[in-house]
């Protein structure tokens, strides 16, 4: 790329090693000026966020400058801006955004990782501040990923698909033919659970809300590989397990809703089953009957991806990201998203906030 920069050794030494330039030489390498989504205080995102020019940043010896290609607007991003998420960037002048994909623009002279201008990289584990056009961070933040998948998938591979994969692997030892049950099945995590389970030969029982278009939603999930899809009202029967037909009682359930939707999962779980809660979209508590504990011996667990990624799992995390992007490349993992130019950030934010009704996940395209 004509715009990509890299400090290079002379022709005579290029093939053998990269010289360690002095810091005074490295200090002359800066990122281009950038545009960023900033906020100085917590509050409603459409009130506290602003797009602003930010000055160039010095790379230093081991810094890597990347040009962002795409970054999603996740619910957790909104929660950070609101100030209700457990982990938040420091204020003021915090840059919003947490995951995304970028292209290497320039590297510092002492960088040892095999990163070159033009490579696609993601922050792994994710890192604050992806809603900006250029970013400078230390080399160990960046993980090189394949560039033969759609940019929106590389931008979103970490938070939702990785959550689905970890939950399928971390709580119950499943074998082909086993079943899992989940609510929030039309979410991206829900869609990923269906497809990743299918790859492993695991059956899925899926619960969705009663709403206009629910039959269409059922058909979309079945096209992804769902074995059964029920609306909540369909499960409002005395013998709910009779609806499963030939499917086995699920050993594992995933709850991202809470309230009655969580109770339905508990009813469907087999003896000794486990329900994992990873979200609470209804903002209603999970309530469990005494008999569920005593007579069914059910287990309730929680999952927070950020905690898992921060527990010395960085290399394992990167291996799984490569696996997931491989599935994307093979056409075995897909979900609906909408790319929106960064210049139309306010429109993308309004859609993510639900001001335009139900919308696909918004992904900013830089």
TrEMBL record:
Gene3D superfamilies: Medium-chain alcohol dehydrogenases, catalytic domain, NAD(P)-binding Rossmann-like Domain. SUPFAM superfamilies: GroES-like, NAD(P)-binding Rossmann-fold domains. It comes from the Eukaryota. Its main location: mitochondrion. GO terms for biological process: fatty acid biosynthetic process. GO terms for cellular component: mitochondrion. It is found in: Mitochondrion. It catalyses: a 2,3-saturated acyl-[ACP] + NADP(+) = a (2E)-enoyl-[ACP] + NADPH + H(+). Residues 43-364 form the Enoyl reductase (ER) domain. GO terms for molecular function: enoyl-[acyl-carrier-protein] reductase (NADPH) activity. InterPro entries: ADH-like_C, ADH-like_N, ER, GroES-like_sf, Mito_Enoyl-ACP_Reductase, NAD(P)-bd_dom_sf. CDD domains: ETR. The keyword Electron transport does not apply. Keywords: Fatty acid biosynthesis, Fatty acid metabolism, Lipid biosynthesis, Lipid metabolism, Mitochondrion, NADP, Oxidoreductase, Transit peptide. Belongs to the zinc-containing alcohol dehydrogenase family. Quinone oxidoreductase subfamily. This is Enoyl-[acyl-carrier-protein] reductase, mitochondrial. The lineage of its organism: Eukaryota, Viridiplantae, Streptophyta, Embryophyta, Tracheophyta.
